[in-house]
Amino acid sequence: MNVWSFDFPWAFLALPPLLYCLYRCKVIVHPRYFPHLSFFGNIGRWQNLEWMLKNLAVILMVGGLATLVSVNYSDPKNRNGIDIVLSIDGSGSMNASGFGNDDNGRKSRFEIVQKIAGDFVMKRIEDNVGVVMFGDFAFIASPVTYEKEIIVEMIGYLSQGMAGQNTAIGEGIAMSVHALRDSKARSKVIILLTDGEHNSGSISPKEAMGQVRKEGIKLYTIGIGKPGEFDNALLKKLAEEGGGRFFAATNEEELKAVYAQIDTLEKSSIKSEQHTFFEHYYQWFTAGALLIVTWLMWRRRIAV
Questions:
Q1: Residue 209: which residues within 8 A CB-CB, separation 6 or more?
Q2: Who has the most CB within 10 Å: 2, 7, 200, 263?
Q3: What percent of the chain has pLDDT over 90?
Q4: Is the dihedral of CA 239, 258, 253, 91 positive or negative?
Q5: pLDDT exceeds cutoff 90 at 40
């Protein structure tokens, strides 16, 4: 997002007296100190081309002093955020319905998670986000990137069962660590969501947690569904070892509240001036003014 402003807007206070002088000031016949001020005198008709160009030159000069600047808040140089990976369970149990509210009660858990996860991604303005899906195995559905619309689109393309019908929590964590391996962010976070127990995969949760600690990653875990459907003890232990927190959600509204709470807990650093990318445009104002002045001087010289 680009925001346009002036570094020195108070320079425009000089415009009214200067423009007034162009209209009212008389030419000094024998100037002593500033002989070139006669250039700004009103020597012709009130609204002729020369008078309008003089006004434009003055406006451009003042605009150059005010210094038009564009601040690009979507530029990677401006981001001081967190790298986050959403690790989502896509096993067979995620196809169960009854998790949503009202009309959403007919939707599967996986469909509801897709919508809520997408909303969470769009709120993380300052952050890079990636998505991992796991079942019997895990894969990176979207690499860690700043392109939020692409991430949400990729989440929408996912479907329950794409990674198998079982629940390999260790694989989900390990693949999330892999997705963050090239991250240069000071803060790296994995948010793992599941509705089941670890029962598949070649990597155990314990082995995966070793990778999490080695890479300095914070791990949040979310168990969804009815009590007893997911491994409450395991998810709590993983979150404690990962320096994060464990959450449980029995319905759609509770899951929304969980993501909202994580959003609050993992706030990005506020942008500081050194992280803001400025692009100045004063040179265009100055060049335009000089071009007009040069042309007027040439015209006057020819007339003489």
A1: 173, 219, 238, 241, 242
A2: 200
A3: 50
A4: negative
A5: no
- pLDDT tens per residue, range 135-150: 999 999 999 998 899 9
pLDDT digits (tens, 9 = 90+) for 103-146: 656 889 999 999 999 999 998 888 899 999 999 999 999 999 98
Please give the full DSSP string across the chain, using - where no structure is assigned: -EEEEES-GGGGGGHHHHHHHHHHPPPPSS-SS-GGGGGGS--S-TTSHHHHHHHHHHHHHHHHHH-EEEEETTSGGG----EEEEEEE-SGGGG-B--SSGGGGGSBHHHHHHHHHHHHHHH-TT-EEEEEEESSSEEEEEEEES-HHHHHHHHHH--TTTT-SS--HHHHHHHHHHHTTT---S-EEEEEEESS-----SS-HHHHHHHHHHHT-EEEEEEESSTTSS-HHHHHHHHHHTEEEEEEESSHHHHHHHHHHHHHHTPPPPP-GGG-EEEE-HHHHHHHHHHHHHHHHHHHHHH-
Mean pLDDT of the chain, nearest integer: 84
pLDDT, tens digit, for every residue of 67-86?
A: 888 766 554 544 557 899 99
Closest to 172 measured CA to CA, from 210, 145, 140: 140
Distance CA 163, CA 178 (A): 17
Integer-rounded Cα radius of gyration of the chain = 31
**Residue 138: burial class (beta carbons within 10 Å; 0-12, 13-18, 19+):** buried
